[in-house]
Amino acid sequence: MDVTVSELMELFLQSPLVTWVKTFGPFGSGNQDNLTMYMDLADGIFLNQIMLQIDPRPTNQRINKHVNNDVNLRIQNLTILVRNIKTYYQAKPILR
């Protein structure tokens, strides 16, 4: 079965993770076409904003808000996100 990129993107955008992310509000520009929604997630800006709502402790790292399809800026934003997620879970005591 041949699956197109647009079909894979549609499946991803219907996943539970994206459904959960949508509960935080409209992505970036509010434009709801699939490619824009995907890019709003891939650039890491919106995901970092969600992480800031979950853990509002200030960090010294600022995300790049104008990625403009720059892969290096996108990677930097996602690296900051992963680092903040690790910090959040490592700083929380385990409840048993």
TrEMBL record:
**GO cellular-component term (any):** cytoplasm
Question: What sequence ranges are listed for the domain Calponin-homology (CH)?
Answer: 11-96
The UniProt keywords, alphabetically, are: Coiled coil, Cytoplasm
A Gene Ontology biological process noted in the UniProt record is:
cytoplasmic microtubule organization
MF terms from GO for this chain are: dynein light intermediate chain binding; microtubule binding
Give the chief site where it resides: cytoplasm
* Pfam entry (one): HOOK_N
Q: Does the keyword DNA-binding apply?
A: no
- Places the protein is found: Cytoplasm
Cross-referenced InterPro entries: CH_dom, CH_dom_sf, HOOK_N
Query: This protein's superkingdom?
Result: Eukaryota
Answer whether the UniProt record assigns the keyword Cytoplasm to this protein. Answer: yes
Task: Indicate what this protein is called per its UniProt record.
Answer: Calponin-homology (CH) domain-containing protein
According to its UniProt entry, this protein's organism is Capra hircus
